[in-house]
Amino acid sequence: MKRLPKGTFINMGTILIGGLIGLLLHQVLPENIQLITMQAVSLAILLLAIQMAMKLPEELWIPFIFSLVLGGVLGEAMGVKALFDGWESWLRINFQLGEKGFSEAFIAAFVFFCASPITIVGAIEEGINNKKELLLVKSVLDGIMAIAIASAASNSFFGVAFSVIPLLIIQGGLTFLGFQIKGTFLKSVLAQISAIGAAILIALALKILLGAQIPVANLLPALIMAVIITGAYSRLKLRF
Fold first, then answer.
1. 232 occurs within a structural domain
2. What is the mean pLDDT of residues 10-15?
3. Cβ contact 131:147 at 8 Å
4. What local confidence, expressed as pLDDT, does residue 16 receive?
5. Range of the domain at 182
6. Does residue 1 fall inside a structural domain?
7. How many domains does the chain have?
8. pLDDT (tens digit, 9 = 90+) per residue, 106-124?
């Protein structure tokens, strides 16, 4: 039972419940309700991320900085944000609130629920540290987004409902990955992954709250750089 992706199961439940509510409402939530909800959730993400970052030992700040900077450069070179922007543009063009089919709702839900930094960071955090706080916050946000998408039309609900399948594969798979690397990597590497994830989440919260022009998606490769750089740094330090 300890190795089950419980956070993902809860996330799936809130999406399905939100989809059912949207099916009943048949209308988009008022903008003022959406705004205050997004702001409240963003504040919760910000506080959780700061708490995560404060746990990083002082001696790991040097690899932290290098991992974040080099990861950001790698993300820019790979065009990670451009890929995400392409998905969003496709959604704006092809998914409009109104009488739309199953496929449009499914793709919209897939992008919103699966292709975000908090999906990756939250899933790995649960696997490594058995902490579900980030995924619980994400579950609330996804539930509200499910209401908005499913309320577009009655058939949109089915697209939202089926989106939990790739969510289980991707998010649940990342949690299982966290379970596996927990016993493989040094504690310093695990701490660094959480700290880098916290930095990405802080950037995400600032972007939502203040409109900061931060290419958050381009920072995602920093999670990989954290494993490489911190692992090498820790082993080199042990030798000397």
1. yes
2. 96
3. no
4. 95
5. 6-239
6. no
7. 1
8. 766 776 787 666 887 888 8
Q: Mean of the per-residue pLDDT values for the chain?
A: 80
Contact 105, 149 (CB under 8 A): yes
Copy the structure tokens of residue 79: 């065009």
Domain membership of residue 164 (yes or no) is yes
The answer to whether position 235 is within a domain reads yes
Give tens-digit pLDDT for 196-223.
Answer: 888 888 888 888 788 778 888 888 889 8
Q: Please report, as a single letter, which amino acid is at residue 154.
A: S
